[in-house]
Specification:
The protein is 22% helix and 37% strand. The chain is α+β, with helices and mostly antiparallel strands and 317 residues long. It has a single domain, classed as Endonuclease/exonuclease/phosphatase (Deoxyribonuclease I, Chain A, 4-Layer Sandwich), CATH 3.60.10. Strands 1, 2, 3, 4, 5, 14 and 15 form a seven-stranded mixed β-sheet that branches. Strands 6-9-10-11-13-12 form a six-stranded mixed β-sheet. Helix 2 packs across helix 3 and helix 4 packs parallel to helix 5. The longest helix is centred in the N-terminal third of the chain and has 17 residues. It starts with 7 loop residues before the first strand and ends with a strand.
Length: 317
């Protein structure tokens, strides 16, 4: 028996902060100040305003009921005290919601987990800020109801040296119980860190003991940094816990989602990894899944891919 009497349409997408943060890993404060400016300028060049327009067009075509987004960001630029230079804030959620409304859509925030945040003085004299968060959105006229909203950070996180000082790359998850079309299920959205299998192992344990420790039908989505093509240990732990991978259940062709170039200007996709996943168990079925943001027509007028990563669309019952 299906979990719901009507298909549930869901998208998950790592929207990309707009710049590689790797240059910020530095022991030298003066080097960090110069690199901070370069990172921010790359963010400006990857133009989230235009990318959000491209995403909104895709959402308009597919009309998903629920959306899970990772690497949502707030970038800020603050002049030194006493300066008449302007301060600017770029809030990805505000920008995306504006683009969705322009496309005739309205999505509300169901859950939001705030992740790492930091400010750094740049070589220009400006102070540059970045805050990362993930969200679960629902279409405003979606007939489902949400309860038991949870928003958490992982207790174990990666730490990097930024300007010679330790900086925790705090990430996390959010979840909600959804009652829709005669059924109740749990949806969980998460983002795992790069580079550290041990941290990801701890994050997997936290999820399995936390929001995934339920008898409810469960849909887990997000960006896992596990490359499922290689059947890595953390990926197998979810499969061994009874989860089905929506991509392998429905498709035989590779579902690679990572990675376009950091400037988003590579001519054709060179996606070699599969890190974006829909995983489900306890009664869910899925019979349709495909990638988003991999066709040339999805690019912005300025030739940018909508994200460094492909998104996923799937239906569930």
């Amino acid at each position: 028996m299906a979990v719901t009497n009507a298909p549930l349409k869901v998208i998950t997408w790592n929207v990309y902060e707009g710049a590689s943060l790797l240059p910020l890993i530095s022991r030298n404060e003066n080097v960090l100040r110069r690199r901070t400016v370069r990172v921010f300028r790359q963010f400006l060049a990857t133009n989230f305003n235009a990318r959000a327009t491209s995403m909104a067009k895709i959402f308009q075509r597919l009309q998903p009921d629920i959306i899970g987004l990772q690497e949502m960001s707030i970038w800020s630029l603050t002049p030194p005290p006493g300066s008449r230079a302007p301060s600017v804030t770029y809030n990805f959620l505000t920008i995306l919601q504006e683009k969705l409304r322009a496309a005739g859509l309205n999505y509300r925030v169901v859950a939001r987990n705030n992740n790492f945040s930091g400010v750094m003085l740049g070589a220009t004299g400006y102070t540059y800020g970045l805050s990362d968060f993930d969200v679960i959105l629902a279409r405003s006229n979606f007939s489902g109801t949400f309860s038991n909203i949870q928003q958490r950070n992982f207790t174990v996180n990666s730490t990097f040296l930024v300007g010679g000082r330790p900086f925790p790359l705090t990430l996390g998850w959010s979840s909600a119980d959804v009652t829709f079309a005669g059924g109740t299920f749990r949806v969980v959205n998460t983002h795992f860190p790069p580079f550290s299998p041990l941290v990801r192992a701890a994050n997997t344990t936290e999820l399995l003991r936390g929001p995934l420790n339920t008898s409810l039908p469960t849909l887990l989505m997000g960006y896992f940094n596990v490359n499922a093509n290689n059947n890595t240990l953390n990926y197998r732990r979810f499969i061994n816990a009874g989860f089905t991978d929506a991509w392998t259940a429905n498709r035989r062709i590779p579902g690679n989602d990572c990675c376009h170039d950091t400037d988003l200007l590579n001519v054709s996709p060179r996606l070699t990894r599969r890190d974006t996943l829909f995983l489900y168990r306890n009664g869910f079925t899925s019979n349709r899944v495909f990638r988003l943001g991999v066709l040339q027509r999805s690019r912005t007028p300025g030739a940018l891919w909508p994200s460094r990563f492909a998104g996923l669309y799937a239906t569930f019952q």
